[in-house]
DNA sequence: CAAAACATTAAAATTTTATTTAACAAATTT
DNA sequence: AAATTTGTTAAATAAAATTTTAATGTTTTG
């Protein structure tokens, strides 16, 4: 069975793409997505823009599944909705700049981590202080409260650092420290 | 029903701890662990060292469950095995320095991301180059191969940057740029 | 070295999460 | 405005992951 040079080329290109698609979707668990969502992103990475039917055909999955997957990808800014006139189908495009995905994702996540934990700490601080300052408590109780208070106090250093890390990513000053091109 | 100052203090301290435990375990999805693993870590965070039976009692779960949870936490360096003589039970201690957990976890993950994707890219490059240099292929094929090649080429910039980010965390030069204490 | 204590693995059960089919809603075109 | 196309939600199913009970292995102690 003879194959033309172009037919061989198609095979090679597909193989090349599959390698990269596999690696991307496998490492995308870091971004908290399932393998199939990862595979969708990686597939879109090699395509211009896609509508839901094209995704469904490419991944051989149902349309509602594509709908939810693409929304998850939009939430973490890895896919953008594109406005294509002419067709009335919604079209989407993968964010191809990994720096942007990185920046957007980790900033969001780390901000959430800081916010939730700081709120909890402030609440906890209030009650721990009450115990620490309560003259009618035993010394043991006040010591225990103080111990936890100090732990939380030192964890604040980390959360503030994380806040500044996010800031340095948002304002891109991180790239002064670590340039994109070395 | 009268409660003594110490009884009230216990309640307050427990409430304070629960706030923080809730926040930590809720945000620990970032570290790719389930809520119950997160809750175990957060619980251990407030205890000195614990053995499996103490964990089981505290979280009201089975022992094998604690065994697997604690192993997961060890894998991401958030829990260390401690050697306690006297008792023959294994004891474990939570890593309380969030900087260390951060550094260890993200370095490992990002290194894995770089390694897997770079390997895939090198493999892909090989086949894409073959197509690009094949004189018998149509121009369209060669162009397509080249297009993908360029995409991968530019993604390498990101992976190399990630590599340097990991390095700066490992050698702690990141803290020259962003000191722990601002 | 046998018995006891503890931890881990294996299998089963439960729960959760992902996916699909089917129904519904929204929008566009005729 | 009716009909058609498209997208999303809801309910049902399937798949995967977590948790438990039961069995096994390992270490320590008497």
Structure characterization notes:
Two copies of one chain form a homodimer. With 182 residues, chain A is mainly α. Chain A has two domains: 5-96, Arc Repressor Mutant, subunit A, CATH 1.10.10; 99-177. Chain A is built from seven helices and three strands, in the order ααβααββααα. Chain A has helices spanning 5-27, 35-45, 52-59, 63-75, 98-132, 139-170, 174-177; strands at residues 49-51, 79-82, 91-94. Chain A has a three-stranded antiparallel β-sheet. In chain A, β2 and β3 (91-94) form a beta hairpin. In chain A, α2 crosses α4, α3 (52-59) packs across α4 and α5 packs antiparallel against α6 (139-170). Chain A is elongated and about 90 Å long. The model of chain A has no long low-confidence stretch (mean pLDDT 95). The interface between A and B is large, with 71 and 71 residues. The first copy, chain A, binds a DNA duplex (30 and 30 nucleotides) through residues 34, 36, 51-53, 61-65, 67-68, 88-90.
Strand order of the largest sheet of chain A: 1-3-2
CATH homologous superfamily of the largest domain in chain A, by name? Winged helix-like DNA-binding domain superfamily/Winged helix DNA-binding domain
Q: What is the structural class of chain A?
A: mainly alpha
Task: Please report which band the strand proportion of chain A falls in: under 5%, 5-15%, 15-25%, 25-35%, 35-45% or over 45%.
Answer: 5-15%
Q: Tell me, rounded to a whole number, the average pLDDT of chain A.
A: 95
Give the assembly state of these chains. homodimer
Helical residue percent band of chain A? 55-70%
């Amino acid at each position: 069975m003879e194959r033309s040079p172009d037919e061989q080329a198609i095979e090679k290109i597909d193989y090349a793409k599959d390698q990269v698609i596999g690696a991307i979707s496998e490492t995308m668990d870091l971004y908290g997505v399932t393998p199939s969502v990862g595979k969708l992103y990686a597939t879109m990475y090699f395509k211009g823009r896609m509508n839901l039917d094209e995704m469904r055909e490419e991944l051989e999955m149902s349309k509602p599944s594509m709908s939810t997957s693409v929304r998850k990808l939009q939430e973490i800014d890895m896919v953008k909705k594109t406005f294509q006139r002419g067709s009335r189908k919604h079209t989407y495009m993968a964010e191809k700049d990994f720096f942007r995905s990185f920046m957007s994702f980790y900033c969001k996540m780390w901000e959430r981590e800081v916010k939730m934990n700081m709120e909890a700490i402030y609440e906890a601080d209030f009650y721990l202080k009450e115990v620490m300052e309560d003259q009618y408590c035993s010394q043991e109780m006040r010591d225990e409260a103080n111990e936890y208070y100090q732990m939380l106090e030192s964890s604040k250093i980390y959360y503030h650092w994380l806040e500044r890390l996010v800031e340095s990513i948002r304002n891109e000053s991180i790239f002064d420290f670590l340039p994109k091109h070395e």
